[in-house]
Amino acid sequence: xxxxxxxxMRFVLPAGFLLLTATFAAPGxxxxxxxxxxxxxxxSPEMQDDEAEALARLNELLDLARSKDPVERETAxxxxxxxxSQKADAALLKLAEDEDVIVQLAAIRAMAGxxxxxxxxxxxxxxxxxxxxxxxxxxxxxxAKTNGEEARxxxxxxxxxxxxxxxxxxxxxxxxxxxxxxxEAAQDPKAVxxxxxxxxxxxxxKDPDERVAAAGAAVAISTRSGEPRAELIQEGLxxxxxxxxASEMACAVLEAVExxxxxxxxxVLSRVMATDGLMTVIERRLERALLATLKVLPESERSAAxxxxxxxxxxxxxxxxxxxxxxxxIQGERGLGEEERANILRAIMQGGNVDARAAAAKAxxxxxDEGVQLxxxxxxNDSVEARLGLQCIRVVQQNGSLVPExxxxxxxxxxxxxxxxxxxxxxxxxxxxxxxxPSSLVQEQAVxxxxxxxxxxxxVTALTELAKTGRGIDLRNVATVALGRTRAETxxxxxxxxxxxxxxxxxxxxxxxxxxxxxxxxxxxxxxxLDDENPQVAATAEEALKRFSNREGEDVERSTWRDWWAANGxxxxxxxxxxxRARQERYGYSVSDAQIYEGLDVIVVPGxxxxxxxxxxxxxxxxxxxQAGKLDEAALHPGAILLIGxxxxxxxxxxxVVQWYxxxxxxxxxxxxxxxxxxxxxxxxxIRKAPTxxxxxxxxxxxxxxxxxxxxxxxxxxxxxxQPFYSLEGAHxxxxxxxxxxxxxxxxxxxxxxxxxxxxxxxxxxxxGVILDTANHFEEQGFTSAEGLKGDEECQAFAVNHMxxxxxxxxxxxxxxxxxxxxxxxxxxxxxxVFRILTNFVREKRING
Length: 849
Prior knowledge:
Layout: H1 45-65, H2 70-80, H3 86-95, H4 101-110, H5 117-129, H6 133-146, H7 148-156, H8 164-182, H9 189-195, H10 197-202, H11 208-221, H12 227-236, H13 247-259, H14 266-273, H15 280-295, H16 299-312, H17 320-328, H18 338-349, H19 354-363, H20 368-379, H21 386-399, H22 405-408, H23 425-436, H24 440-450, H25 457-469, H26 473-486, H27 491-498, H28 504-517, H29 523-529, H30 535-549, H31 561-568, H32 577-584, H33 593-596, E1 602-605, H34 612-618, E2 624-625, E3 641-644, H35 652-663, E4 667-671, H36 674-682, E5 687-689, E6 697-701, E7 703-704, E8 725-729, E9 734-736, E10 743-747, H37 749-755, E11 759-766, E12 769-774, H38 791-802, H39 807-813, H40 822-826, H41 832-848
Parallel strand pairs: 1-2, 1-3, 3-4, 4-12
Antiparallel strand pairs: 5-9, 6-8, 7-10, 10-11, 11-12
């Protein structure tokens, strides 16, 4: 564990974090050896006016730079970056050490490109000494933008002793930028070998953090140097693939390759791609590094390289196809072109390896209509392998036209089942799979896909029959809710009938189905259901009535509903699912975290190890608690949020309730041991506790995975380079059992190197609902897990670097006395970096149901 909370920050900040600023060269003096006359005498009256205006602007900025208002000083710093004068330089040097971090950053960015000994000296100092990660990075990158070679020399001189770690980190940031500036220009191998000599020595340090940072920095320095680069990758990556204790170094090398790619790396990365049994933290970074390397190849060479890789899938290393499929799934600027991605997925889908084909099927949604057609080809086989079928159904559901456009946009908002033409092939395939496929997972996914407003009457008929007589209570629950989601007129009678079923699960699912139908005819059976003896049935019925009457979040006496409805029912609003989603989008990303929870039924099952309810109390979020073993009395409904903390030791009767809740649309959030005691019993064979050599007690840094870089669950978690600091208290780290269903969103090379596994947070769909598990304790986050913090600046830096505390908030509280000790600050500030994952989870539930 790092000796200092911020000692080993190696997080890769989001691209574009540091703003580019315009720089100007100082005006020259005409030649001939004569002394130039005063400039004013050589200018026309118009030009003299321009110069006077420029001087006035400079003086105004200099005045702002001396202001007591940090906003004005920030404005000055930004403006002075466009002023090529010694006075501007002097003011920027002072602002770069301002007490306000936002002002500092503005000044540091403005200094990029201003070549002077004073600038280089100060930027080097800030890159090494600032406690704020983003200040250090901004300084390192401004150094690189000013003079890459000079920046390298300045930082290499500091890559030893007490400054070794910070210098290596700064070198990685600066060299990644310098490599992009050099483009295709080759470096002198001998010069590079000389430059990395000290970093090679650092890789033998007793401090594991220094070893890791040095390995990454050395690789970043060595782009397009030939043999030195190949040796560094061989030593830092290839020679350690089988040793989990060296996995952090291997990851650092791959991250450096990704940030400073070299076409020559393709050969060694391709060999590593052929290595089976890689740790997941390495495998993800290998895929990203290979993608970055492919993207710097000329198009013709990239095409040849991809052809060679795909040809190699026919050999012994066919499992590599899954890795290529995941690379092909990456879209946008980070990814390959659409045709290149389509070629990869098309070739893999034609292969015989199930692992590779399942991974490719999962990625088909990213290539548009062709992906849908490839998915439909698989689904035309009514005995399609379950892993393939599950993913292909999702592709068709997301991208296919299961519902004619005119039916999905009914003006009256009441979708009606289309019956004039025969159902499409896609609908036919899904009906067959829903009715007859041997895998219950495939059946459930096909049912969910058919549950759309305006779907063909053949699908409504199939869902009706499945809700009544489908194979097993789980499938019938899912089909009942899906039937409601069609909003078909005929669904109301069926759901009202099921609301009188002997099994409480079917009655509760029917109540949720009627909520989804959202019609006046649903009210009468729901009013009757308020008297149901089962708390889940009554609660789900009441939630539907609250939704219809716009009384969500209100505490309503249940016995008053009939009278209220008789007097006010005409004011009810029966919204479509799209209308409800649009209404819930008011809980989007512009509102505060606390507002996300307003009017929401948040249910906490307190754990013996983690007490997330204490964090909710600190943030002023309302919730209710239910003890483990009492969930059958909890009045749980799919519209609620269920939080189960460590240890999560729920009873068998609880498991039954939780399974119903998630399958019918609920959102379950768990932590630490609840993975074993709640998640696995609720949905086996998706994720489980990873084997570790001992108990996992540690404080570790979390990073976003490839698939999660744009995940809504991580929105705002890593903004500004925040690096969450996870408290692991006997943690149950995550092992993925089903890679197509589970998405890991956070991992940690640091954790992998110390505990043999590095996956920290993952989610998966179950029926209509979702489960998200995270390995940390929420109560022990933030300052309670920090060690060795001294004084207000270190506490402030920890809050900004690791807890998601914004620089804007710091500007307002910087002078508060409670910053002077971590224990006092802990009572004022919660760790929002980790808690924001839960908030995003709640936000997604509110918006998408």
